[in-house]
Amino acid sequence: MPQSLVGCGEGVLDSGKTRNAKVTIRHVASDAGVSVAAVSKVLRNAYGVSEELRAKVMKSIEKLGYRPSTAARGMRGRTYSIGMLLVEMKNPFLPSVVEGVKAELRKAGYQTLIGVGDAKASIERSLIESMIDLQMDGLLLVAPRISGTVLSRYALQCPVAVVGHHEASAKTFDTVNSNDESGARSAVEALLGSGCKRVHMLSLPRTNEAHEVFALREAGYLAAMAEAGLSDHAHIWRVRERPNGPGDPVDVIFDRGELPDAVFCWSDIHAIELLNKAHERGIAVPDQLCVVGYDNTPVSAMPLIGLSSIEQHGEVMGRTAAKSLLSRLAGRTDPEHIVIEPSLVRRRSMRG
Amino acid sequence: MPQSLVGCGEGVLDSGKTRNAKVTIRHVASDAGVSVAAVSKVLRNAYGVSEELRAKVMKSIEKLGYRPSTAARGMRGRTYSIGMLLVEMKNPFLPSVVEGVKAELRKAGYQTLIGVGDAKASIERSLIESMIDLQMDGLLLVAPRISGTVLSRYALQCPVAVVGHHEASAKTFDTVNSNDESGARSAVEALLGSGCKRVHMLSLPRTNEAHEVFALREAGYLAAMAEAGLSDHAHIWRVRERPNGPGDPVDVIFDRGELPDAVFCWSDIHAIELLNKAHERGIAVPDQLCVVGYDNTPVSAMPLIGLSSIEQHGEVMGRTAAKSLLSRLAGRTDPEHIVIEPSLVRRRSMRG
DNA sequence: ATGAAAGCGCTAACAC
DNA sequence: GTGTTAGCGCTTTCAT
Lengths: 352, 352
Fold this sequence. Notes:
Mean pLDDT of chain A: 89
Number of helices of chain A: 12
Largest sheet of chain A: 6 strands, parallel
Strand content of chain A: 15-25%
Structural class of chain A: alpha/beta
Order of helices and strands of chain A: HHHHEHEHEHEEHEHEHEHEEHEE
Distance between the termini of chain A: 82 Å
Largest interface: A-B, 58 and 57 residues
Number of strands of chain A: 12
Low-confidence stretches of chain A: 1-19
Shape of chain A: elongated
Oligomer: homodimer
C-alpha cells in the first residue's frame, strides 16, 4: 500500500496567499492511489501501463497542476532542453539562426535556452559549463570563440553541434557552416565584373584562429583578386567590430590614401557603418564607391540603405544544426560537417 | 555566494576516448580523504571548515576537474542561474536590456539563461515552466504577453521581476518600466512645438491588455493632443508589428486620405519602416513629414536614417530589474515598482 | 571542526 | 500490470 506521504499537507493547491509547496510525483501518486513508479511511467509513456491507470494518473496530474521537475529528472534521464550559446546579441544576423534552431528543436519536444557569450572565451566557457551542469541534453554553439581543442573536450561530456566555426576535421562534434570562401569569392567577382579594380576588404583584427569565419572570407577575397590578376590592388583593412574608443574604426579607409573602387566587408555591421560614413563625407555610392556586405541583415534591405550582401541562410543553418544535434542525441556518433552555399543579393550599393 | 570553480582546464581529464564519467562530489571527497559533507561545505563557503581541509579539498577539485552539478544542487539549494524571458529576438532594443541584466547578475555570481517567447503567450508559459522546472532561482521577464494574473501565479512558485509590462498593483512580483506615458507626451509635445498640428500615431493592433507599453504610449499621445486642443486631429493607426502577408502594413498612412504633418510611432521598428516608405515615395522628411520613434535603437542613430526617438535607457532598466530580483532572492517580499524617465533624442526626422 | 545519514524529485531495475 | 527499492549528486541537520 502506498503510504510514503511526507509531511506535505493536503493535496489542495495554494488558495493564493503563500508560496506554493511544490507538487511532487508523490502527491500525484497518493492522490491517484497508485505508486510513484506508475506515475513516472505514465509521464514517460513507458511500456506497461493500463489505460485505466494512465487515465487516473492524468486526472490527478491535471487536478494538482503537477509538473515534473526537469532538474530532478535530469539526474537520471533527460531534461529535454538544449543550451544554445550565442557569441553576442547585437549582431542582427543571429535571430534568424535562433529561429531555425528553435523551430526544429521545438518540433522534437525540446526547449531552447540561450546563453550570450559576449564574444569572450572565458564567458563562453563558464556558460557552457553551466549548461552542462544544468544537465542540458545537448549544446548548440553559434560562432564560439573558443578553440576546437576545448570544444572537443566539452563534446566529451555532452553532445555538441557548432555553427559558424570551421572545424571540418572535428571527430567528436558536428559543424554547420556557410561556405564562407565561396561567399566572399562571389562578392568580389561581382564587384570586379562591374568594373571595379581596386577592391579592398574590411575585416576584423587578426586572431590566431583559422576557424573563424572571417578568416575564410579573407581567403576567398584574396583568391578572387589573385585569379583576376589584381593581387597588387588587394588590401585588407582590419578594424574592431564596434567602436570602443573615440573615433570610428571604419574611418581608416577614408583617412589614409586613395579611396578604393569598392569594399567587400566581412559583415553587414561594417558595411552599413561604411555606407553611413560615405554618406556623411559626400562620397557617392555606388558611383565613387561600391560596397558589399555579408549576412543580408534586415537593415541592408531597407531602401534607405540598399546594401548588397551575401545571404547565408541563417535559418537554414540553424535548422540544419538542430537536426544534427538531434540525430546525435538519437545515437549517431560519427561526425557530420555540413556546408551551405550562400548567395549574393544585389542592391543599390553596387553597380550592375 | 557561488564559487567560480575552475572548469576542465588544462588538467588532465579522462585519459580515454570514451565519454567522460562525471566527476562527482564523492570522487573529490575520497580523493581528498574527507567526507562528502566537508566538500559540500567548502563548495558553499559554509561556516566551520579549517583552512587545511579547504586547501586539501580545493586541490582535489582542481586535480579532478570537478564541477558541481547545478541540477543536483538545485534540488536542495540554489542553482545560481536565473531565467530571462524575451518577447522576441528581432527587436533591436532588447540587447541593451539583456546587457544590463547580465552585467548585474554576473556581479552577483548568477548565470543568465534566456528563452525567447516569440510574442506568444503559450510559448512564454511553457518557457517559464521549463525554467521553473530547471530550478532557476528567479525569473526576469521582458515584455511578457501573459496577463498579470498568470504572472502572479508563477510568482508564487519562483521570484519574478518584470520589465516593460505595467502592473503597478502587483503584490507578488516586481516591475521596472519606462514612463511610457511621459515618453509619448514629450515626443508629441516636441512635434507640436515645432509647428506640426496633425500629429498621428502609429501603434499596434488593440489587445485587451492595458499593461502593454504601447497602450500607455497611446494614452500619452492622446493626452498631449488634448492638452494642445488638437484632439480633433488625433488619430491612431493600428498596424501589425511586421508584415506577414503581402503589402506592408505601414502603407495605410500613405494610402488613405491626407498625409499627416507628423507621426509618432510606438516603436522604432515602425518608425524606420515609415521613413523608408516616405523615401520611396519621395516624401521629404522632415519638411513634409516629421517622424519620432521609440527606443532609440542603434539604427535610428545612423546618419542615413536620422530618426528622432525616445531613449528608454534599456540597459538601466535591465540593471534595475536585476537588482530587484536579487534583493527579492535575498529575502524581500514587499513588491517594488520602479519607473524610469525616458528622454527625447532629436535627429533629422523632426524640425527644430 | 568533521562526518554520517536523511532526504530533494525523479528514473529504472527488478520484484511480485 | 503494478509496486518496491535503489540510487542520481548534492545540501543540511545533527551527532561526534
